[in-house]
Design a protein that fits this description.
The protein has about 130 residues and is α/β, with parallel strands linked by helices. It has one domain: Response regulator (Rossmann fold), CATH 3.40.50. It is built from five helices and five strands. A five-stranded parallel beta sheet has the order 2-1-3-4-5, with helices on both faces. Helix 4 links the parallel strand 4 and strand 5. The longest helix has 16 residues.
Length: about 130
């Protein structure tokens, strides 16, 4: 089944960030699924339906950058937006060179996330799975 409303997957080990991001995206009409870890996301039965991944950079076991690499290895071209409480130029450059659409420092403005998400979804309509 193809969803007419984009499914956004939020992956963050911080419950308050997951809840705030989910509430923001739902208020904009998106379907949202949240995950406490990259591993949980990779086990999702709706992995194929995800239109965009919004993920923390630093998480236990598998980082957001590792998650992006794993998704590309599995053949998924879904866009990624990274959020982090520890922004630095090296991590930002790594994320963007790996293909991330956006890189936001926590706390981020809701409109900034929505702008990145709009750009990611526009790009995803032109590509999707690699």
């Amino acid at each position: 089944m193809v969803l007419s409303t984009p499914l956004i997957s939020v992956v963050d080990d911080d419950a308050s960030v997951r809840a705030a991001t989910e509430n923001l995206l739902k208020s904009r009409g998106y379907i949202v699924q949240t995950f406490t870890s990259a591993e949980d996301f990779l086990r999702s039965p709706r992995l194929n339906e995800t239109s965009c991944v919004i993920t923390d950079v630093q998480m236990p076991v598998m980082s957001g950058l590792d998650l992006l690499a794993e998704m590309r290895t599995r053949g998924y071209g879904v866009p990624f937006i990274f959020i982090t409480a520890f922004p630095n130029d090296r991590v930002r450059a790594s994320a963007l060179s790996a293909g991330a659409i956006g890189f936001l420092a926590k706390p981020f403005a809701g409109h900034a996330l929505i702008e990145h998400l709009d750009a990611a979804l526009k790009e995803n309509r032109n590509g999707g799975r690699t």
